[in-house]
Structures are given as structure tokens and as C-alpha cells.
Amino acid sequence: MLPVSATTPESAALETEVLLVQRLRDRDEGAMTIFYDKYSAALYGVILRIVKKEETAEDVLQEAMVKIWHSFPSYDAEKGRLFTWVMNVCRNLAIDKIRSRQYRVGSRTQPIEESAALRQAAEPSFRPEHIGLQEMTNQLNPEQRQIVDLLYFGGFTQSEVAEELNLPLGTVKTRARAAIKVLSKLIR
Amino acid sequence: MNIQEYIESGILEEYALGVLSEAERAEVERVVREHPEVSRELQQILNGLDAYAEAHAVTPPEGMRERVLQGWQQAIRNTAGQEILIQTADAPVATPLMTASVTPMQPVPAAPEQQGAVVRQMPAAQEAPSRLKWLIAASVALLLLSGLGNYLLYSRLQETEANLEVAQTAQSRYAATQQAALNERDQQLAVLRNADFRAVELKGTPKSPEALARVYYNPKTKAVYVDVRNLPAPPSGKQYQLWALDNGKPVDAGMLATTTAAGDSIQQMKDIDSAQAFAMTVEDAGGVASPTMSTLTVIGNL
């Protein structure tokens, strides 16, 4: 990323994030609107990728925002970005949702809606500086991508992935590590 | 510890994916705290996964922003009282480094169920959710009532069907009986209407003056029918026997069935070649070869 002025997009983003964290810590309800505008597309996209149904994804996002608001005093900015933290809240709630028996039974009866949600394309203009999904996944080989997706979006453990793909646990671990390394190198 | 080897081991990637056990996670966090180099490496890895997540961004549907923000606001208003308690309860926990909530990959401490509950904002006014609640309650009540009604109607239907089946069986049995009886009567009527039949009045002897019976005799076909009007009930073990008198000689014309003797039906008797008179005696059940004259009850001439 090339710095175009004294403030790089990165530092500007960091600045808004620090401000946002401060407002949330002050229990400023208006900050949640800014939070929504900043993160909803990414959070919604990942939740939708996990739960597959738009209506459920919306419910999970709202549930996650309530949880984020209530748990915010325990967020420590020094330990990681706000985005990482809130993404994990959303991911965990979404995975809990698909693991609930009720959801599995319900989703089996709605294959059409499910496929409609899957067809929904990623929004390329979400953040001008972010690397596109196509570009990222092109860097992963299909085996690596499959494993990252099962672990990150499917809520599978490594043992479950090994069982699902009929692979030795060691191979799953190796591929998962390699895949994450590829992803983290892409943005350095 | 060889930091480079630790980084190369891939455990940080596993940490970032959230696939480590509690103990492994705690160990990684300890190393991260002690070695800034490892911490930097972990941050790179987390940024990589974050970017991957961001790459999946999808523009939310129309109207979702208002729904979600209003739903969120309503949910936190509903639990505003509880929140104070949670904040005070969380405050001391937030300070130590190793708590679940301060590390990026840990799930947020479980909030009470109510806080996590999704509140869907209705487009109408404030009372809408309570109206919805009433509607739902009413729907459920209606559904239950309808279910109960269906059950009652169904069991009543079952009962009715069973009754109908019984009635139909009884009716068809009755119809069959009646048809057989009718056929018999038709036959008898045809017989009696035949001009060749001669009716013979058998009148009571002085021993039983009230007794009265009628015999229909067809000399051409030799057929004999008996129709009892009034006969004293025979003693038990006894039966009325009909005799034809041909030139003064008694010929057995058969035994009267109990129903015939009671006057319930006309009975066809044995064929008789020739007769000038008919008579009835009371004999042992099954009949005898020659009449017991002392029990002569009715008699009549052609």
C-alpha cells in the first residue's frame, strides 16, 4: 500500500478504530451506528457464509451486536484489533447457530433459499484497499482452501476435518498452517 | 526456547484459527506476552485471517441497517438494568491478561440468554411487539383448540363408523331374514291362491272348544298346509300331530312346529294322496304311528 499523504489509509483506519473503541467504551449508543456502517458488510458476509440463510444471518448479526455491546468492557485493544474480536464473536454465534439441532432440521427443508444465499456475490467495493476474495483464494491451492473454510467457516475441529476428508490429522494440520501462512504473507 | 522454531511450528496459525485446546491456548498466550517477536508474528497471521474474512464481505440487504440497529437498541434497553450488574461483575475480570475476553481468538464470555436474544424490529409503533405476542398466543390457542376439535371429531367419526358398520351388518342380516320370510310367504300365498286348494276348518273337540285351525289341501298336488288360529300350548315333551282321515283310516300328515302351533306361521305338511277329514292329536315329540284318540284336539271334514 502506497502512502499518498501524511496519513496513510491504514493509519486513518486505525485512528477511526481507536475513536470508535473509545466511544464504545464510554457506552455511546451512537457509536454502534458507526460500528455498523464500518463492519456490517464483512460481518454479515462471514455470517452468511456460515449460516447460508439471509434471514438467519441478519438475526445472528443483531444478536452479535447485542453481545458485543454488553461484553465490550472486556475488550482489550492491546490484545488485538477490534475487527478480529468482533469477527470472532460473530463467527462463534453463527457456528453455534448451525450446530443447533433445530437449525439443521430447519435448513434441510429450505434448499432453495440456501442456494440463493450461496449465489450472492461478495461485494468488491467494500473497502478499496482490501484484497479481493478471488485474489486471495487464487493463492491457496484447493486442498488448503477447503481446510481453511471448514475450520474457519464450518466450526470444525481439526480432527473433524480429518474425519470428514478422510485424511491423517497431521496432513490437516500441515495444510491448515500452510494456508494461514499464505494468507498472512499476502497482506504483509 | 528457539523463537524462530516456535514460529515455524505453525502453532500460531492454529491459535488464530481457534482450533487449540484451552491449555495450548494459554501456553501460546504466555509465549506471546514474553516475546514481542512472536506477538508480531501472531498479529500478522490474525491480519491474514481478517483479510480473508473481509474478502467475504457482502452488502447487507435493503432495510437491514434500520432493522438491526433498532432491534439492537431495543434489546439493550430491555436489559439495561442487568447490564450494570454485568459491567461491575466483569470489571475485575477484565484486568488480568489471561481472561478469555481479552484475547482475540477467545469467545466472548457468555452473556445471559436474554441479552443475546434477537429482537426483530416491527415497522409499526411501540405496541407492535406486544400485539404480535397476543397474535402469536391467540394463534397458538386457536391451533390447540382446532387440534382438540379435530381429535374429538375424529374419535366421534371413528365411533360413528363403527356403529354404522354394526348397523349395516344387522340390517343386512335382517334384510336377508325378511327376504327369506317374504319368499316363503309368497310361496304360501301362491299356494293358497291356487283355486285347487280346499280350506278345511278344524274345530275344537268338547275337550278344548276354543281350539281352531285350518288345513289347506290340494287334491291335485297332494300338498297340505296348516294354519293354526288357536291351540292350547302342548304339555312339555308333547307336540301336535296332524292326521288325514282317508276312509276312516288315520294317515300321518306330519308334526306341527312350535311356531306353527303357536299360530305364527303357516306350515307345509306331508303330502296326502286322499283325505275326507283332518284331525290333530297331542303326541310325544317326534310323532307316533297311530293317533291317541283321547288327545284329539281339533277335527274337520272336507
From TrEMBL, chain A:
Transmembrane segments annotated in the record for this chain: none
CDD domains: Sigma70_r4
Keywords recorded for this protein, A-Z: Sigma factor, Transcription, Transcription regulation
RNA polymerase sigma-70 region domain: residues covered: 35-102
One Gene Ontology term from the biological process aspect of the record: DNA-templated transcription initiation
InterPro entries registered for this protein in UniProt: RNA_pol_sigma-70-like, RNA_pol_sigma-70_dom, RNA_pol_sigma70_r2, RNA_pol_sigma70_r4_t2, RNA_pol_sigma_r2, RNA_pol_sigma_r3/r4-like, WH-like_DNA-bd_sf
Domain of life (superkingdom): Bacteria
GO molecular function: DNA binding; sigma factor activity
Protein name per the record: Sigma-70 family RNA polymerase sigma factor
From TrEMBL, chain B:
Signal peptide annotation: none
UniProt xrefs under InterPro entries: Anti-sigma-K/W_factor, Anti_sigma_zinc_sf, RskA_C
Alphabetically ordered keywords of this record: Cell membrane, Membrane, Transmembrane, Transmembrane helix
Bilayer topology annotation: Single-pass membrane protein
Subcellular location: Cell membrane; Membrane
Major subcellular location class: membrane
Keyword Ribosomal protein set for record: no
One cellular-component annotation, GO: plasma membrane
MF (Gene Ontology): sigma factor antagonist activity
Keyword Iron: no
One of the protein's GO biological processes: regulation of translation
Domain Anti-sigma K factor RskA C-terminal: 137-294
Taxonomy, superkingdom: Bacteria
Protein name: Regulator of SigK
Organism from which the protein derives: Hymenobacter rigui
